[in-house]
Amino acid sequence: MLAAAAATAIIPLLMCYKIICWWEYDKSKHPVVKPLLCYTTPGSDWRVVANNINIEFRSVDKVCIPLTATSKFVATETWLIRVTQYGMNAVKQRDCSLVATATDSYALSTTGEDEVQYVNIEAIPSRPDVNQFSFRMTTTALREIQSRLRDPVRVPEHISLLPTVIERFVTVFKHHVEQNPVYYVDQELEQCIGCMQNMADVKIDRRCLPVPPQLEAIAPPPCQQCNCRVLWCCACVARWWAARAAGGAGGAGGAGAWLAARGSCPVCRAVFCMLDVRPARPRPS
Ligand SMILES: [Zn+2]
Ligand SMILES: [Zn+2]
Ligand SMILES: [Zn+2]
User: Within a domain: residue 233?
Assistant: First the structure.
């Protein structure tokens, strides 16, 4: 009883003491002010640094990634900031390198994808007075921030990031296309007009059977013949297909449902299904 009473008195007293500690010496011991003091120039005040961060934070260019329910990572034009429940880390982008140190994957995720991977990232400041800190985010979030950082997060060779859903879909799509009969072309194959990197290697050629007349009323409209030349590589057709399927009704079912959707020729708009994408090869002489 006595101990409980003492505890109820001691905890608020300790809390008040802590708050007084934060407030004295111009709040220089406050956990949010501490990281800013490293960047205070002589004769100036930490409030100038805070104001600079505030201005950048209001910009549309900042990225804000929630790390947990109570912490987040913010990258503004010049600052990298981690805000947690009881403190804050702030370092200028030019004074810091970000390195991925480990990854771990889970089979279930809240975003509906079948696998989610987290990356641990270490922020290593080049200034001795700034504290090193670490945080973890999903590989998807990492890809999102990479292009917005002054120096992208370095990913050492021994760490392999999970391919994106689209990259994985391209692999599955290619596998299915290879099972369709080869379409031989007499002229030489040209460069893909989509990526300008790979050789064009697929022909959209209708192979699926027409819908029986009794089912015509309920079946989707039949596929159409595409008369375009061999213009695209398989990866470009797969990405085009995925973009269309993800935007349509198939989007909810994830990459598995995308295969059951149908694509349309990027040039002539002819509708085609998975059976109609044939690998194109030069005719053997
Ligand atoms: Zn291509
Ligand atoms: Zn076409
Ligand atoms: Zn078809």
Answer: yes
Are residue 37 and residue 130 in the same domain, yes or no? yes
**What is the CA(171)–ligand 2 centre distance, in A?**
23
Compute, in angstroms, the gap from residue 262 CA to the centroid of ligand 3: 8
Tell me the two tokens of residue 147: 């292009």
Select from 155, 29, 153, 133 the least CA-distant residue to 81: 133
- Token code pair at residue 5: 């009473």
pLDDT in tens, 146-167: 888 888 999 998 888 888 788 8
Q: How far is residue 150's CA from residue 137's CA, in Å, rounded to a whole number?
A: 18
d(CA 177, ligand 1 centre) in Å: 15
Instruction: Quote the pTM value.
Output: 0.66
Q: Which residues surround ligand 3, an ion (CB under 5 A)?
A: 208, 223, 273, 276
- CA dist 146 → 78, 141, 155 (Å): 14, 9, 11
Q: Tell me, yes or no, whether 128 and 193 share the same domain.
A: no
Ligand 1: centre distance to CA 231 (Å)? 8
Could you identify the residue written with the tokens 């600052």?
A: 79
**CATH at residue 68:** 2.30.29
**Residue 276 belongs to domain spanning:** 165-282
User: Ligand 1: distance of its center to the CA of 122 in Å?
Assistant: 36
Residue 177 lies in a domain: yes
Query: Within this chain, do residues 117 and 215 fall inside the same structural domain, yes or no?
Result: no
The answer as to whether 119 is a domain residue is yes
Q: How far apart are CA 121 and CA 161, in angstroms?
A: 13
Domain boundary among 146, 179, 194: 146
Q: Which two tokens stand for residue 48?
A: 């100038």
Ligand found nearest the CA of 226: 2
- Quote the ligand 1 centre to 198 CA distance (angstroms): 5
The tens digit of pLDDT for each residue in 47-91 reads 999 999 999 999 888 899 999 899 999 999 999 999 999 889 999
Residue 1 counted as domain residue: no
Beta bridge partners of 188: none
